[in-house]
Write a structure and sequence with these properties.
single chain, 332 residues, alpha/beta, Rossmann fold, 5-stranded parallel sheet, 8 strands, 11% strand
Length: 332
């Protein structure tokens, strides 16, 4: 099995990409698996099939197989996971600090590896898609498991990301009524910069296992980008009957966590979703553009007022882009 890890920061369209790829035979949409223990199990979150994750026919079987081999307690898994958080990202420049944090996770990585392998065994999947996004979580998988990981760094215009964090939306992943988390300009910008810079730093030494993808390039050519992602991973991807142009008809899936659109059924049009241009205050867009310019400009985003997709430049040459560079992954 292989793991395609979609990394970066939140509100970049990762759930949509996850669901599209996971609709192909042999590819499994896992969703944001870093939050499986906290939201899916200890809080009885819902799988995209509509059942609580613990009762989902796919995940319950995989969890049972994992527990039979390496017994685990979901509450303890949450506590162990909290020993290595996003707040630690800036300190990961120190290898000694990182190794100490990874050592403190105790049995967590082993349980996660067995679960990933178990769910692929249950479903007969060759590729598990983990859209957790958090770069530091990918370090746990890379450094403390034997999983075959490919890191797809998904980025988006920071003005669109910032706007998405301000929108009030219902969190349909729980049985009760709850709103999704929201972030202001400063907090969303902090996460944007730390997560994107961190993703590059953590994976730049494995160029055959790292690619960058702009959300805007994905929605401009969903089929072409999906094919190049498959080439990057080195696996066949058949989206016949699922994708026609920009029209997506998702197949039944078992996404554990992510954007509420994981529950959507029926035909979906893949679009840029540029609502921020008309609905976000101009001062907010300007501030988001200014704060995030050093990082976002690296990915070719035009952050001046009124900048459009036509003004976008290609990412810097030292960044291998899915949209512009093909090539299969190298052996580990």
């Amino acid at each position: 099995m292989k793991v395609l890890y979609i990394g970066g920061t939140g509100r970049t369209g990762s759930t949509l990409l996850d669901r599209l790829l996971g609709s192909a035979p042999g590819w499994l949409s896992g969703g944001e698996l870093a939050f499986l223990w906290r939201f899916g199990l200890t809080r009885s979150g819902l799988c995209s099939c509509g059942a609580p994750v613990a009762d989902c026919p796919v995940w319950s079987e995989a969890l049972a197989a994992t527990n039979a081999e390496v017994p685990f307690d979901a509450e303890r898994m949450v506590r162990l996971r909290r020993r290595f958080r996003s707040e630690h990202m800036p300190l990961m420049a120190s290898r000694r600090f990182t190794e100490r944090r990874l050592d403190s996770l105790e049995e967590f990585p082993a349980v996660v590896e067995r679960l990933y392998r178990a769910v692929c065994d249950v479903t007969g999947s060759r590729v598990l898609i983990d859209s957790s996004k958090e770069p530091h979580y990918s370090s746990i998988l890379r450094r403390r498991t034997g999983l075959d990981i490919y890191f797809l760094h998904l980025v988006r215009d920071p003005r669109a990301v910032g706007y998405s964090w301000t929108r009030k939306r219902a969190e349909t992943g729980f049985a009760g009524s709850e709103d999704m988390a929201r972030r202001g300009v400063l907090k969303s910008s902090l996460y944007y910069n730390v997560s994107n810079v961190g993703a590059e730093r953590l994976w730049r030494d494995e160029p055959d296992r790292y690619r960058i993808l702009r959300y805007e390039d994905f929605v401009a050519d969903p089929g072409g980008v999906a094919a190049r992602i498959a080439d990057f991973v080195g696996e066949e991807l058949d989206l016949g009957g699922v994708l026609a142009g920009d029209t997506f008809m998702p197949r039944a899936a078992h996404v554990t966590w992510g954007n509420p659109n994981r529950f959507d059924v029926g035909e979906t049009t893949i679009s840029r979703d540029d609502a921020w241009r008309g609905k976000q205050a101009r001062w907010r867009s300007a501030v988001l553009g200014a704060i995030n310019a050093p990082t976002a400009s690296r990915y070719g985003y035009p952050l001046r007022a009124g900048g459009s997709l036509r003004d976008m430049k290609h990412p810097e040459r030292d960044i291998r882009s899915v949209a512009g560079v093909t090539g299969g992954g190298g052996s580990r």
